[in-house]
């Protein structure tokens, strides 16, 4: 069944901003889909509000709409583009929900758009819990499965719509039970209730979270083994299982938060085939149209009873993992199946000779470990449950479980880098086993510790729910540790076994102090000729030759790295997503690959994040799926360089470290010292920008201002500095990313508390103390600088938020709307002086504060920043590509001549007709709860907490702002109640916007002071009291927001005094998922946006059209 | 931990891998083949088709689920030797009765572990299946190599007599009896009569030396030709038997070795594949439906037949009914005017997916029509 000929134009919906449960895996899948569809000669229209994605680069679609993924905006796109079909299965739950909404509202029918790759009824059957339960029973009966233990194939359960129903159900099932709200993403709102109190809380919020106010109450299968199968079906009803995944963490921990292994390690063929049969039967019964699908099973370890937990009728996070784990590109193939191909008609990319209609077989083991960010959310309950809380993940491959595990543990970049690399916690065996009972981040460390304290494999397995096989693997490492500790000398056989078991040099040196660090171990290892070899991911366990160099390291015998005489460049990726280091950095790395490939280099990508485009085997010429540690990177460099030299080429001519965020940057100096050719800004220059004293000197010499500051190595120090420069002060540990540990401190007492609580202050770990500039305008700049000292301003972004909120969490606008030419000139002068002074070769990000018309430098980072993709999309200039070229020696003039950069001018001088782009951050507070079950404190501050961002782009600030809010929150309101409370200085300025809102039909709520001003201007308003004021009979603003009665908040802060109250209002707004405007320009913008929405005059425009206006010289195509 | 004795694996082309003893300590020879299944080692080890073969497991971890009382496909382990990378030091499964290595040692199966099985697999893929020796008692590679080169080759090997049952036995239908089948045991796996029994078929399993009269004496409605080891070119007796059955229009179903026997009975040739198909992920196209099934394979030989035309045979026209999508190898044959069909792979799976289970239903239909 070949490709359908009736489809000419496909609409693809992306997944929007990165949130917990929906991360950059959907950029990977969407990018693959767009590429495939275009290669098939189809017109592709794309909608995605996330500017940090590769898929929204204009070259991946014919028309790219960086617009909100809401039914309203997608309808506008459909009306304008008139696609033949909509492919909704590659953009996560967001795309699927939007497609369902468009179907239900009749939009798809109205415009004659066919849904492909999905079937509305199948989606319903997959997601409606009760329907799904019946489906499983039917599927099981059809293939003659009554369960081995005679039980049901699903946990006993009931769908409930009220708390009364919930309690009734639990009376029958008994506690504990699992609560799962219907139609939520990433398990949001679900959890395990052990007590009646848990039940009230979880079921209550679950009913509220579910868009259809429905929860499933389910028999607990806590502690059962958990498996997933990734399946694909074509329209000829051929089905293949791409991958089996076994969770090390037993049932009860969301699979996104579990340590997982592929393939399944502890199933016999009989049991595996039962899962396969059942999975396929369920897939058919549900009626998944074509494409990928994921099914989760629980298996009772005592008798093998299988229950089907759930299925996702779309490409999911697990399918991204399965794709990277097997080399089988699920998203790409799903896209081909959606347009009519069958599996046997699609070639396997890796072997090129065999078809995609087969099941990959692995001759290695894959381990995925989630990355958490609990340190960012003090107060959040760190217990792992069925609600996903991790913000990223790392994957590793090895030729056995312990090798893959060791690599994965060091890939996640936590404080500990594998077993024994941190001091053991001071706990007894009993305490350790007790801790093991509660699922938590790093539970493998706890399990290993328990074994070392004398626990048996059975003890640890009982306490943790880990299968004894996995525990025994840990025990094998404990045995090996003893051998290493006790050996007289570390001889070749023992060191080889240690490396073969996945131990890093760092782990080994922790056991053998005589090496004085990992350099000593490495020296010995190299002297003994012990280096890793590189194997290939080939989908077929070497049965057929692989044509794609997708490699992973192993301490085995034969290496598969082939020689090449082309000049090679290694690009180091950014590792697992975490708050402050996410998809934006992968975007820049991918751009470097693309630019350098085109410039004739052989590109070699090193990264360990399975969700990314950079780890697609199609992206770089060669892919090394490896941890980003010094040891692992050095070995990849050695393998590539020596094979290149042996082939008569120049080997590795450069290693790019400045595009992947802090992870590669942190390796720069050691790599350079080891002789690795770091290109771009030198490690010395990086250090210069990051070292306070030296950087301060540079600023002084150039005559640039910065807030008064000092570096403290003790509390007494810090107090002296603060007294001198005056409160409030901004305090933080040195060398951080994403504002980790950064706070604004208003008095000595808080300073003392901060130093004690948040820092390990010492002469080696100083704390930076800066004067905090209240009430300033913050400005972000991304710039390029080449070897000649020429500087190109990529973009100047003005923050819309009040000062003091981390730039990653605040909204900003480009071009800057309130800055005059003189300000921009000053920004340009400052930026150029810093770039030249530091010696930047590539990208530089500088943050400024403008207060009373004076520009202050807050910080400078000589690397790609988080805003590079946003700036690139807003200005139509590929900054990361240009940076990569500059690092390899190109000059800005050359890049202008080539056409990569505009022939003249830069992002600091955009024409007045340039579109206005607004970036808004997306925050994850709703995911977290305190151990008592309350919402966590959602105050924003100098420490970054957002997981992702959206872009709104349009002709005016108002329209762009409205879009950014719609993309982040759903939409700005067009009716309802608006709460207004502004600082005294803003009282006059608020009159006009508030009056306008009242005229538009909104009810205005205001605090006393604001209300009295408004009333004098004839604006009717209800008076609310501030949260901290006593009860005077009026309603409490924060409570009203929390109750969902308010649809928009306008709150400009009073300065330091009222700051706390403002934060409380903002927290309530975030928790209620409504926009909160904190500045007058923002309020004006919101009013303009609301007017545009009410008048129905919102329009959508593809990036290609916007870019053509910005860069007329490049519009020939 | 007690250390394993060192061991050496020597291929007939002189390539040597060093590792450690696994299973029994000793020396063994056979044909080196690799199997890509990630599950089902117990079924693989006890599959008589692996007789005289040294099996290299591409899956790195072997032994994780131990061995149990249900998954044997015959009465013993048949492989001549076993090559794994990482043997499991413990096992975990609710059905497990013991450890794999203990079982291998108890049955005297010589193996080797801690070798780069991927490198070995790549070598066999490039050079083809070849003879091999494993020794954990003699580390003189030259000596082992000499003995490898003196060991018998698989081409021309008649091994059926070594694996077939000595006495006939019967596996009764479950539930309602619908059919009786005489199965010629050329190395039959236990799951085959089990799958037939599940459909109401009673199976009389007969020794490979059974004559036409023996077979007909059972009163069977159809005859089944099983899988088995060795070179089909050497199985002249079974080819003769098959021809006699075809002449009598006895409904016939063959799998694996049985497919090759049917092919030869139809006058088609067989040949040795470079490195064979051994795994449980092989895509086979059923040309009558256009559907793809993922199937279990274990064959080093294949039938030579034209893919795009029918073949005239003594028993009427025949066609290739199934092909492997990876390499277009003939995976099934069908007589158009006589009740006989066969497949080169394993509908009984064990180990492997159950996609081809429908073929047993086709047997029922075949008899019904005939």
From TrEMBL, chain A:
It catalyses: hydrogencarbonate + NH4(+) + 2 ATP = carbamoyl phosphate + 2 ADP + phosphate + 2 H(+); hydrogencarbonate + L-glutamine + 2 ATP + H2O = carbamoyl phosphate + L-glutamate + 2 ADP + phosphate + 2 H(+). Mg(2+) 1 binds at residues 296, 310. Mn(2+) 3 binds at residues 847, 859. PROSITE patterns: ATP_GRASP (PS50975), CPSASE_1 (PS00866), CPSASE_2 (PS00867), MGS (PS51855), PROKAR_LIPOPROTEIN (PS51257). Binds 4 Mg(2+) or Mn(2+) ions per subunit. GO terms for biological process: 'de novo' UMP biosynthetic process; glutamine metabolic process; L-arginine biosynthetic process. One of its GO terms (cellular component) is cytoplasm. Mn(2+) 2 binds at residues 310, 312. Residues 144-339, 696-888 form the ATP-grasp domain. Mg(2+) 4 binds at residues 859, 861. SMART domains: CPSase_L_D3 (SM01096), MGS (SM00851). Its EC number is 6.3.4.16, 6.3.5.5. Residues 1-413 are annotated as: Carboxyphosphate synthetic domain. GO terms for molecular function: ATP binding; carbamoyl-phosphate synthase (ammonia) activity; carbamoyl-phosphate synthase (glutamine-hydrolyzing) activity; metal ion binding. Keywords: Amino-acid biosynthesis, Arginine biosynthesis, ATP-binding, Ligase, Magnesium, Manganese, Metal-binding, Nucleotide-binding, Pyrimidine biosynthesis, Repeat. The large subunit is composed of 2 ATP-grasp domains that are involved in binding the 2 ATP molecules needed for carbamoyl phosphate synthesis. The N-terminal ATP-grasp domain (referred to as the carboxyphosphate synthetic component) catalyzes the ATP-dependent phosphorylation of hydrogencarbonate to carboxyphosphate and the subsequent nucleophilic attack by ammonia to form a carbamate intermediate. Belongs to the CarB family. Large subunit of the glutamine-dependent carbamoyl phosphate synthetase (CPSase). CPSase catalyzes the formation of carbamoyl phosphate from the ammonia moiety of glutamine, carbonate, and phosphate donated by ATP, constituting the first step of 2 biosynthetic pathways, one leading to arginine and/or urea and the other to pyrimidine nucleotides. This is Carbamoyl phosphate synthase large chain. It comes from Planosporangium mesophilum. The gene is carB.
UniProtKB/TrEMBL annotation, chain B:
Its EC number is 6.3.5.5. CDD domains: GATase1_CPSase. It catalyses: L-glutamine + H2O = L-glutamate + NH4(+); hydrogencarbonate + L-glutamine + 2 ATP + H2O = carbamoyl phosphate + L-glutamate + 2 ADP + phosphate + 2 H(+). Residues 1-177 are annotated as: CPSase. Pathway: Amino-acid biosynthesis; L-arginine biosynthesis; carbamoyl phosphate from bicarbonate: step 1/1; Pyrimidine metabolism; UMP biosynthesis via de novo pathway; (S)-dihydroorotate from bicarbonate: step 1/3. SMART domains: CPSase_sm_chain (SM01097). GO terms for biological process: 'de novo' pyrimidine nucleobase biosynthetic process; 'de novo' UMP biosynthetic process; glutamine metabolic process; L-arginine biosynthetic process. Residues 5-135 form the Carbamoyl-phosphate synthase small subunit N-terminal domain. It is an enzyme of class 6 (ligase). GO terms for molecular function: ATP binding; carbamoyl-phosphate synthase (glutamine-hydrolyzing) activity. Coiled coil: none annotated. Keywords: Amino-acid biosynthesis, Arginine biosynthesis, ATP-binding, Glutamine amidotransferase, Ligase, Nucleotide-binding, Pyrimidine biosynthesis. L-glutamine binds at residues 49, 228, 230, 257, 260, 298, 300-301. Composed of two chains; the small (or glutamine) chain promotes the hydrolysis of glutamine to ammonia, which is used by the large (or ammonia) chain to synthesize carbamoyl phosphate. Tetramer of heterodimers (alpha,beta)4. Belongs to the CarA family. Small subunit of the glutamine-dependent carbamoyl phosphate synthetase (CPSase). CPSase catalyzes the formation of carbamoyl phosphate from the ammonia moiety of glutamine, carbonate, and phosphate donated by ATP, constituting the first step of 2 biosynthetic pathways, one leading to arginine and/or urea and the other to pyrimidine nucleotides. The small subunit (glutamine amidotransferase) binds and cleaves glutamine to supply the large subunit with the substrate ammonia. This is Carbamoyl phosphate synthase small chain. The gene is carA.
């Amino acid at each position: 069944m070949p490709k359908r000929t009736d489809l000419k134009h496909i609409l693809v919906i992306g997944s929007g901003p990165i949130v917990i449960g929906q991360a950059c895996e959907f950029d990977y899948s969407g990018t693959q889909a767009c590429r495939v569809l275009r290669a098939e000669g189809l017109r592709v229209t794309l909608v995605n509000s996330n500017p940090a994605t590769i898929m929204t680069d204009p070259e991946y679609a014919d028309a790219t709409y960086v617009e909100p993924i809401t039914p309203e905006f997608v309808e506008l796109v459909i009306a304008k583009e008139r696609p033949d079909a909509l492919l909704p299965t590659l953009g996560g739950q967001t795309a699927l929900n939007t497609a369902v909404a468009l179907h239900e509202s009749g939009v798809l029918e109205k415009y004659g758009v066919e849904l492909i790759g999905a079937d509305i009824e199948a989606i319903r059957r997959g997601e409606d819990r009760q329907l799904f339960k019946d489906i499983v029973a039917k599927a099981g009966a059809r293939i003659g499965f009554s369960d081995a233990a005679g039980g049901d194939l699903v946990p006993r359960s009931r769908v409930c719509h009220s708390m009364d129903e919930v309690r009734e159900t639990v009376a029958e099932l008994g506690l504990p039970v699992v609560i799962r709200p219907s139609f939520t993403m990433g398990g949001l709102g679900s959890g395990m209730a052990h007590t009646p109190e848990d039940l009230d809380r979880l079921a209550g919020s679950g009913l509220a979270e579910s868009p259809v106010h429905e929860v499933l109450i389910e028999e607990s299968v806590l502690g059962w083994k958990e498996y997933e199968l990734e399946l694909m079906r074509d329209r000829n009803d051929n089905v293949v299982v791409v991958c089996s995944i076994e969770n090390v963490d037993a049932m009860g921990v969301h699979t996104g938060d579990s340590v997982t292994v592929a393939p399944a390690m502890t199933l016999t063929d009989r049991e595996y085939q039962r899962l396969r049969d059942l999975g396929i039967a369920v897939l058919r019964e549900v009626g998944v149209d074509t494409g990928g699908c994921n099914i989760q099973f629980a298996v009772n370890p005592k008798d093998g009873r299988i229950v089907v937990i759930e299925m996702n009728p779309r490409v999911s996070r697990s399918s991204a993992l399965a794709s990277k784990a097997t080399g089988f590109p699920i998203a790409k193939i799903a896209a081909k199946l959606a347009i009519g191909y069958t599996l046997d008609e699609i070639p396997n990319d890796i072997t090129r000779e065999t078809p995609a209609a087969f099941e990959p077989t692995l001759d290695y083991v894959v381990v995925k470990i989630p990355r958490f960010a609990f340190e960012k959310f003090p107060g959040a309950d760190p217990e792992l449950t069925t609600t996903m809380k991790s913000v990223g993940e790392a994957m590793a491959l090895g030729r056995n479980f312990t090798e893959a595990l060791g690599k994965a543990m060091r890939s996640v970049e936590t404080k500990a880098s594998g077993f024994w690399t941190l001091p053991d916690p001071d706990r007894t065996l009993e305490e350790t086993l007790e801790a093991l009972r509660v699922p938590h981040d790093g539970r493998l460390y706890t399990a290993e510790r328990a074994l070392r304290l004398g626990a048996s494999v059975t003890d640890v397995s009982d306490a943790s729910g880990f299968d004894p096989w996995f525990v025994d693997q840990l025990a094998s490492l404990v045995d090996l540790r003893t051998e290493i500790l006790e050996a007289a000398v570390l001889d070749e056989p023992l060191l080889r076994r240690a490396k073969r078991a996945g131990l890093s040099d760092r782990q080994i040196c922790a056991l053998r102090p005589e090496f004085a660090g990992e350099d000593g171990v490495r020296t010995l290892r190299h002297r003994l000729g012990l280096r890793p070899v590189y194997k290939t991911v080939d989908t077929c366990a070497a049965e057929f030759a692989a044509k794609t160099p997708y490699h992973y390291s192993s301490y085995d015998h034969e290496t598969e790295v082939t020689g090449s005489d082309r000049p090679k460049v290694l690009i180091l990726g950014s590792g697992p997503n975490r708050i402050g280091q996410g998809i934006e950095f992968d975007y820049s790395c991918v751009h470097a690959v693309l630019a350098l490939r085109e410039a004739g280099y052989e590109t070699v990508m090193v990264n360990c994040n399975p969700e990314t485009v950079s780890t697609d085997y199609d992206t770089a010429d060669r892919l090394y799926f490896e941890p980003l540690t010094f040891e692992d990177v050095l070995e990849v460099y050695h393998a590539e360089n020596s094979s290149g030299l042996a082939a008569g080429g120049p080997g590795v001519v450069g290693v790019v470290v400045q595009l992947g965020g802090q992870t590669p940057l942190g390796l720069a100096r050691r790599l350079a010292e080891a002789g690795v050719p770091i290109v771009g800004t030198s490690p010395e220059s990086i250090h210069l920008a990051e070292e306070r004293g030296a950087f301060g000197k540079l600023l002084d010499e150039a005559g640039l201002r910065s807030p008064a500051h000092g570096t403290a190595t003790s509390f007494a120090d810090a107090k002296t500095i603060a007294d001198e420069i005056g409160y409030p002060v901004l305090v933080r540990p040195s060398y951080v990313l994403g504002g980790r540990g950064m706070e604004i401190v208003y008095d000595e007492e808080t300073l003392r508390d901060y130093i004690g609580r948040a820092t390990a202050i010492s002469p080696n770990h100083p704390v930076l103390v800066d004067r905090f500039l209240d009430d300033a305008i913050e400005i972000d700049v991304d710039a390029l600088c080449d070897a000649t000292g020429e500087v190109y301003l990529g973009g100047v972004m003005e923050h819309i938020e009040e000062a003091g909120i981390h730039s990653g969490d605040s909204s900003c606008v480009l071009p800057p709307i309130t800055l005059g030419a003189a300000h921009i000139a000053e920004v340009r002068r400052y930026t150029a002086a810093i770039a030249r002074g530091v010696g930047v070769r590539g990208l530089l990000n500088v943050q400024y504060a403008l207060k009373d018309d004076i520009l202050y430098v807050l910080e400078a980072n000589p690397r790609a920043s988080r805003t590079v993709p946003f700036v690139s999309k807003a200005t139509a200039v590929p900054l990361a590509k240009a940076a990569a070229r500059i690092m390899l020696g190109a000059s800005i003039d050359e890049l202008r001549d080539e056409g990569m950069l505009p022939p003249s001018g830069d992002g600091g001088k955009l024409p007045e007709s340039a579109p206005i782009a607004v970036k808004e951050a997306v925050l994850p507070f709703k995911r977290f709860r305190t151990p008592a079950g309350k919402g966590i404190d959602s105050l924003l501050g100098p420490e970054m907490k957002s997981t992702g961002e959206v872009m709104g782009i349009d002709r005016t600030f108002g329209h762009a702002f409205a879009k950014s809010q719609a993309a982040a929150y759903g939409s700005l309101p067009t009716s309802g109640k608006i709460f207004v409370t502004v600082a005294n200085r803003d009282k006059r300025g608020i009159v006009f916007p508030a009056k306008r809102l009242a005229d538009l039909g909104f009810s205005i709520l205001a605090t006393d002071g604001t209300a009295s001003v408004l009333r004098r201007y004839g604006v009717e308003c209800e008076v609310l009291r501030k949260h901290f004021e006593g009860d005077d009979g009026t309603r409490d603003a924060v409570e009203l927001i929390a109750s969902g009665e308010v649809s928009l908040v306008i709150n400009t802060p009073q300065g330091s005094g009222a700051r706390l109250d403002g934060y409380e209002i903002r927290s309530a707004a975030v928790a209620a998922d409504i926009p909160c405007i904190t500045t007058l320009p923002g309020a004006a913008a919101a009013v303009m946006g609301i007017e545009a929405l009410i008048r129905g005059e919102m329009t959508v425009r593809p990036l290609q059209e916007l870019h053509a206006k910005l860069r007329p010289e490049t519009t020939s195509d | 931990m007690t250390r394993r004795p060192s061991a050496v694996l020597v291929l007939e082309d002189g390539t040597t891998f060093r590792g450690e003893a696994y299973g029994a300590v000793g020396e063994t020879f056979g044909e080196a083949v690799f199997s890509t299944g990630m599950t089902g080692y117990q079924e693989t080890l006890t599959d008589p088709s692996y007789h005289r073969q040294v099996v290299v497991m591409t899956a790195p971890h072997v032994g994780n689920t131990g061995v149990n009382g249900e998954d044997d496909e015959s009465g013993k382990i048949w492989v001549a030797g076993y090559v794994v990378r990482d043997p499991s030091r413990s096992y975990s499964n609710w059905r497990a009765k013991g450890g794999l290595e203990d079982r291998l040692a108890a049955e005297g199966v010589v193996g080797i572990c801690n070798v780069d099985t991927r490198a070995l697999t790549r070598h066999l893929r490039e050079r083809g299946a070849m003879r091999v020796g494993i020794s954990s008692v003699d580390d003189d590679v030259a000596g082992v190599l000499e003995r490898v080169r003196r060991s018998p080759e698989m081409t021309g090997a008649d091994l059926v007599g070594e694996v077939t049952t000595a006495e006939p036995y019967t596996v009764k239908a479950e539930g309602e009896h619908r059919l009786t089948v005489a199965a010629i045991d050329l190395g039959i796996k236990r799951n085959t009569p089990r799958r037939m029994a599940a459909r109401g078929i009673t199976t009389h399993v007969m020794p490979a030396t059974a004559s036409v009269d023996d077979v007909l004496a059972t009163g069977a409605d159809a005859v089944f030709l099983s899988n088995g080891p060795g070179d089909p070119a050497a199985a002249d007796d079974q080819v003769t038997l098959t021809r006699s059955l075809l002449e009598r229009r006895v409904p016939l179903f063959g799998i694996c070795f049985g497919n090759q026997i049917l092919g030869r009975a139809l006058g088609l040739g067989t040949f040795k594949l470079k490195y064979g198909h051994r795994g449980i992920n092989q895509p086979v196209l059923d040309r009558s439906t256009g559907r793809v099934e993922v199937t279990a394979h274990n064959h080093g030989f294949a039938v030579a037949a034209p893919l795009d035309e029918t073949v005239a045979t003594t028993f009427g026209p025949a066609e290739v009914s199934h092909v492997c999508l990876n390499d277009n190898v003939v995976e099934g044959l069908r007589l158009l005017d006589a009740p006989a069909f066969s497949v080169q792979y394993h509908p009984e799976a064990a180990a492997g997916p159950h996609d081809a289970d429908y073929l047993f239903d086709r047997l029922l239909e075949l008899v019904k029509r005939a």
